[in-house]
Amino acid sequence: MEAQIELDVQGHRLFAIPFNEDKGGIPAVFIHGITASINFWEPIQVPVFRERFRWYSLSLPGHYPASFPGGFQSESLTADMIIEVLAESIRKLVGEKPVIVVGHSTGGFAAMGIAGRYPDLVAGVISISGFVQGRWNGALGLLQRIASLGLLGPWLFRTSWSILVAHHSIYRLAAGLYAKDRRALYTYPDFEDRFDIVYRDAKRLQADSLFPFFKRLLDIDISDKLPFISVPTLVIAGDSDPIVSPEQSCAIAEKVPKGELHLLEGAGHLPMFERAEKYNAVIEKWIEGIT
């Protein structure tokens, strides 16, 4: 395991893991999705990045091992806050050198927001199951609705999260709700070892740190930033995503001037597991086209 880099940004404590620091060329920064961690990317990294690129796995604010500033309130979590904190974190990692920003789900939303607001910082974007409107479906949508239940919301959300992470088997079953092709997910090479990493970090993630995301992202919409993303943008999603509607990916690719869309047939919210071979091939071909 590479040594973690700790980043202090506007009172937020974020972390990143560096890989291939001896490599030249365009660096890449990977941002995980909601409830995941900086340990998500390394076991499933696309070969082209693993072998040829200097890359970093960067935490979302508030996600283990990251933490919010003391006294942080849910109302402080906005699209602009997430984008600003992550953009400043990227600058601390690579300076002013443009990067390829890759994000899954909420990480995809953040990647597009960074590209739209800080174009000089970004050389390319890969959005994987990303969104610009934060109203989710399925299991995550249910948690959003729970978080929005007025005075009862925080308690019900904490209770729901504690049940989800109470046992390995419960969280494993919940992970299946993200997928359309559960067989492909559960038979992914070394899936159990990879899932153990995800579960270990999820147990360390505090419900109070997650709550602002589920309460506040429900109403975000950064679609107005899409026309300002001037760099090549690869949009990948499963055509049967139960969490984020594939229509969002279609709209993203249509509104971004250099957007390229790939919907992977029969896949859900985890195309890197459900359609690993196709997913890797699409990314590798796109990378060859921009570097």
Structure notes:
- This protein has an eight-stranded mixed beta sheet, sandwiched between helices.
- The protein has helices at residues 47-52, 79-94, 106-117, 138-147, 153-164, 168-176, 182-186, 191-204, 207-216, 246-255, 271-274, 276-290, and strands at 5-9, 12-19, 28-31, 55-58, 99-104, 122-128, 233-238, 259-264.
- It is globular, with a radius of gyration of 17 Å.
- It has 291 residues and is of the alpha/beta class.
- It has a single domain, classed as Rossmann fold (3-Layer(aba) Sandwich).
- α2 (79-94) packs across α3 (106-117), α4 packs antiparallel against α5 (153-164) and α4 (138-147) crosses α9.
- 46% of the residues are buried.
- It starts with a strand and ends with a helix.
CATH A-level architecture: 3-Layer(aba) Sandwich
- Biggest sheet architecture: 8 strands, mixed
Going across the major beta sheet, what is the strand order? 1-2-4-3-5-6-7-8
Number of strands: 8
Oligomeric state: single chain
CATH homologous superfamily designation: Alpha/Beta hydrolase fold, catalytic domain
CATH topology: Rossmann fold
Structure characteristics:
291 residues; eight-stranded mixed sheet; 8 strands; 42% helix; 16% strand
